[in-house]
Sequence to fold (402 residues):
Amino acid sequence: MNPSSGRLASLDGVRGVASVVVVLYHVSLLARPFATGRISEPAWDIATETPLKLLFAGTEAVQVFFVLSALVVALPLLRGGASWPGFFAARFVRLYLPVWGSLLFAAALILLIPRDPASVTTGEWIANANATSVDPLHLLTEATLTPASYTLVNTLWSLRWELIFTLLLPIAVLLARLLRRWAWPVAALMSVIMVLGRVAGLDAAVYLPAFFIGTLIAVRLDDLRAWAADRSSPLQWAMLTGGSALLLVASWLSRPFVESSSTLGQALWGLSGVGAAGLIVVAIGSPFARRLLETPPVLWLGKVSFSLYLVHAPILATLAFMFGDERWWLVGIVGVPLSLLIAAGFFQLVERPSHGLARRVGRGVQTGVAAVRSRMLSRREGRARSASSDERPRATPEPTDG
Fold:
C-alpha cells in the first residue's frame, strides 16, 4: 500500500476488536452485582485485576476509538482529498443518521417489550443508565448528541465527544501541522494532560487529548511507517504491545494495592489514553498485528463495529429487563450473538446507506462551494477589469474652430 494513500485495513480490525470489548464490558456490568461480595468474588477479582480485564475493558476501549477516529478522519483532510465544507456536511450525515436509527430502534424495543424496574438491580448500570419508558422530548434531546449522559442508547455519550472533536478538527489539524516536528513531545504533553484530567475529573482533558494524539499520528503517519519498517524484531513489537495493553488497564491491575478512587488510582486510569495510542501504533507498524487484524472475521467485525456499538446496549438492556439481571449469563449468551446479527442488519439498512448519502452530500456541498467561489472570483475580476478600463487616460478632444 502506498504510504501516502490507501486504507489502513488493520485499523478496521482494531475497531472491530474494540467494539466487541465494549459489548463484553456491558455484559460484565450486568454480572458485577452478583459477583462482588459473594462466593464468586475471587473469580471476579481475577477477571478484573489481571490482564484478563483486557477482554472487557470497555471504557478504555473507547479511548482506542477516540485515537483511531481522529487518525482516520484527519487523514483525507491532511492529504487534500476533501474541503472543509464538504467534510463537515458528510461527517454530520454519517454521524447523525446511524445515531437517529439507533434511537428509533431502542425506542421501539422499549415500547414493544415493557421494562419493569423491579426486575433489575437498583443502583447498577442496568437501572441507572437504561430508560424504562420513551419520552418524545427525551428522545429528541438525545438525538442532538448534546446531553452529557444517555439512557435510550447508553453508548451515545462517546458520540458526543466525537461531535465536539469534529467541530474542533480544523484547529486540531492546524496545530498538528504546526507542531509536526515536535509530535512526540507534544504527544507526551497530551498524555500528562490526560492523567491530570482524570485526577481532576475533567472529562474534556481526558478525552480531547486522545483525539489530538490521533491527529498527530495522522500528520506523522509516513514517518511512523518508516520507523516501523526499521523494527522487524518480533520481540520489540511484543514489548510495545504488552506495555501498551498494560497501560490501558493499569488502574485495574493496581487495584489490589491502590484504591481506585485515590489520586494515584485516578492517575493510573489516565494512562489508558497512552495505552490506546500505543496499540494504534502497533496496529499500524507490527507485521504480526496487521496479519491478525486483517483476517476476514476481524475485518467483518470492523465493518459492522459502529452498528454493533449503537445497537448492543438496547438489546442487552431489553434482555436483562426481560430475564432479570440475575440471569446475566443468559443475557450474555443470547445478547452477544443477537447483537452481532442485528448489527449486520443495521449496517445494511442504516449505516451503509448513510455512507453513500454522506458522500453525495459532501460532494454536493464541495461542488456548490467551489461554484460560489468561482462566481465570486469572476465578479471580482470583472470589477477589476472595469475599474482598470475606467482609469485609462482618454484622448483629449481636439478644439473646434468656433
